[in-house]
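REVIEWER CHECKLIST
Item 1: Sequence provided? yes
Item 2: Single chain? yes
Item 3: Sequence as submitted:
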Amino acid sequence: MAKPLNGISRSSMPRSNEGMRLIFSAVVGVMLGYLFGISFPTVNITKLHFPSSIISYIEDRNSGITTQTLLNHAWASANNRKKNSSESNTDEIPKIYVPTNPKGAERLPPGIVVSETDLYPRRLWGDPSEDLTSEPRYLVTFTVGIGQKSNIDAAVKKFSDKFTIMLFHYDGRTTEWDEFEWSKRAIHVSVRKQTKWWYAKRFLHPDIVARYEYIFIWDEDLGVEHFNAEKYIELVRKHGLEISQPGLQPDKGLTWQMTKRRGDQEVHKVTEERPGWCTDPHLPPCAAFVEIMATVFSRNAWRCVWHMIQNDLVHGWGLDFALRKCVEPAHEKIGVVDAQWIVHQAVPSLGNQGKSDNGRAPWEGVRARCRKEWGIFQTRLADAEKAYYLERGITPPNSTVV
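Item 4: Structure as written out by the authors:
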């Protein structure tokens, strides 16, 4: 039997040839893969946009679509987007920027901007255009505690369905009001131990109450037997009042002569005070002045007053002397409506929400805070006006603040 040549068997030669072919094929495959790869654009996998059919697959794993199909769709989508992008670069759509839009909304088209809203409750179902059976034209707010429930019920009944009713609950008790049918339609806001001006600053922004022609911001201790809200508004319009209040019964809860009801006229805008109290007959407290217990603002006046209310000064003391800053001429557009009058019952309910300190009753601490706020507000207003004049190179007047 012949021996294999040079010790190599015939059976090993085909295996050697097969190995060479595999190596050659691998090299060719790598080269083709490289050439194939560089001929395609780079695709960022995070920017692939999947068609809805693929998204459906992700949501339904039993759809039968394979991973390869998913990638094929994504690859085709990416190529189409790049093609479309390259075509649109020559005629790029300008970005929206509208400087006259409200601050922060400059990138929105004006047609979609809704800068104002309202307090009208809406349904959770049906056609939005059919939600409202009526749109109240006026707003009345009361800052209330449960102890004045009967008094508020009587007051609310003086306001027709042309008014939105809004209650600010300083004692946190809201469910007890459900016994009144009107309460189920009212707007209730509850934060413990807060004043009406705290509420007003946070919940009555002018863009929120813009639908209302007049805004009543009232205390809870007002007797309204001789008051009719719609007749009151008729007189306000007739006499051109932008800021007003009903006259007060003369013999109870009266602090200023200006707010005292006069029985011989519909409205008064000036009065006489104690000697030395009025440096100018057109300035508070002899004119351009109403108190803050039962104030009524026109929509335009409220837009100014809201901006003047300070975040940290919650009692509003001093605000009534500054209301004249928001209308011109103030001594003609601020007044008291005598023909529709109320009684100030002077119930110290919110005052009792204070804290006893060093043997003082709760109301004493509240009153001390009120006086302190008045001084702070006067100083802030005077400093702000002085800074305004100096910035413009104008010598500030002696004082524009009362």
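Item 5: Key structural point noted by reviewer: Confidence is low (pLDDT under 50) at residues 1-13, 40-63.
Item 6: Recommendation: ____
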